[in-house]
Amino acid sequence: MTNQRDNENPDRRGFLKCMAWAGAGTLLMMKGGVLHARVLGLDAGTEAKDATFSFAQISDSHIGFHFAPNPDPASTLRGALAQVDALPVRPDFLLHTGDLTHLSRPDQFDTLAGLMQESRAGKGKAFYVPGEHDVIGDNGAEFFRRFGERQQPGGWYSFDHRGVHFVGLINVLALKAGGLGFLGNEQLAWLKKDLAPLSAETPVLVFAHMPMWALYPAWGWGTDDSVEAMGYLRRFGSVSVLNGHIHQIQQKVEGNITFYTARSTAYPQPAPGVGPAPGPLKTVVPDRLHSYLGIRSVRHVQGKDALAITEGVMA
Amino acid sequence: MNRLACAACLLSTLAAWTPPHAAASSRVPAEKSNQIEIRNFMFTPKTLTVPVGAKVVWINRDEEPHTVVSANGQFAPSKALDSNDSYVATFGKPGTYVYYCTVHPFMTGTIVVK
Fold first, then answer.
1. Hey, which of A75, A297, B37, B105 has its CA 20 to 30 A from B24?
2. Confidence bin at A289 (pLDDT 50/70/90)
């Protein structure tokens, strides 16, 4: 097991810091469960041409947040979507990994939906999973009514796209006092059944809002029963797990499973354990905010047993 | 006209009730100590002991929304509390009430009613 959390690996930390502050795009490629990073614009472009398809991930837009360091998350989401629209290769679809809104209010969902309609990528096919900010007070009823895939009563779903099996999991409901993110037995039973007919060669991409590994449990950054889910995924040759929630890039490789957390389009949060609590990083200088925000694009290269993951900052 | 008269009547009734109300508000300082601050993703104090019938006030000092929800449905849940929003619950029966924030379930607190 390799742990590439940036606060535990000095090289990785230095690299990510540089990336976040300098605003350089990076291509992350997974080959046989090992992550390779290349700076965009060097050799990365040629590999992008091999892609059979690509998709983009955005996360944590927190529409309705109105404090430092970003009193206007609608405009930064608009910027992120424009960045997706400007990608040299048009992504097949968009993935939003949750916390669309800050307080689950209908007007906040309206704003989000309106901004998506302004963008070519947002107007196209988009897949969503809720964050804990999207399910406050109604267990996600409003979220699922507007953005749900309606495959399963619990809101989780899967689909196949050009040979890759995608699974959208819900880990922000029925949370227990003192606990972390939670999948629950019903969802785990479904996942086991959903994966059962797939051959081990099928690339699998799982996405959920909260980290699917114990990233920093003291701040709630993890999912109580993610180990069971990972147990079902271990037999596959290539598994990528995307999530949001922590508003910064962190990676971890565990056998053939690689975990990636995404930046927010609204505001950054502190590195794990830095400061008294999670929450918006208020000390960001306004003109540096964009270098902490971003989008992610993922390309699938046929026959290469790998997904190439590119981080784009909004600077 | 009748409605106005009625309103006036109500107002005067309310006015007439001012003395007992004033008496009640004189107890406010005692109730103020039943305040729980939510700051840095923590309920402070984490455990609060109050007499039967006490009103407890939670106030969110974070820029993140929080909720106050009984772990086993013993009292009514709050809505999402934005910054500086507050929530009040009255505890009529003795017991131990464990609650948490459903947005950040690692945040827990306890009200002991004696």
1. B37
2. confident
